[in-house]
Design a protein that fits this description.
six-stranded mixed beta sheet; mainly beta; 1 helix; globular; two-stranded antiparallel ribbon; 99 residues; 10% helix
């Protein structure tokens, strides 16, 4: 588990456990970062799930799933958790690049 997110993390790429870019950090609040999923990686998946509006969402990323933070990227242990911004708050994990 990595240290608390900081304002320096805003704008960094987010990479899944395979090292593939899956999003960008748009804001941070202590132990949580808000990530805009990479549209090119997520667009076809969300469309097939009927989540057309989901590509405009941000995903809440907790530091507990972060493997490491570097000057250029935040690397995850596994996949980026995706949730529909208009849902009831429950999350569905999807690997945005490998699904």
């Amino acid at each position: 588990m990595c240290a608390t997110f900081s304002d320096d993390d805003v704008g960094k790429a987010v990479e899944n456990g395979n090292g593939e870019a899956v999003g960008v950090i748009t804001a941070v609040e202590g132990d949580i970062a808000h990530v805009r999923p990479d549209l090119s990686a997520v667009e076809s998946i969300t469309s097939s799930l009927g989540w057309e509006g989901a590509v405009e969402m941000t995903v809440t990323l907790e530091r507990t799933i972060v493997r490491e933070r570097t000057a250029d990227a935040v690397r995850l242990e596994g996949s980026l958790p995706l949730s529909n911004a208009s849902d009831d708050g429950s999350k569905t994990e999807r690997d945005a690049v490998n699904d």
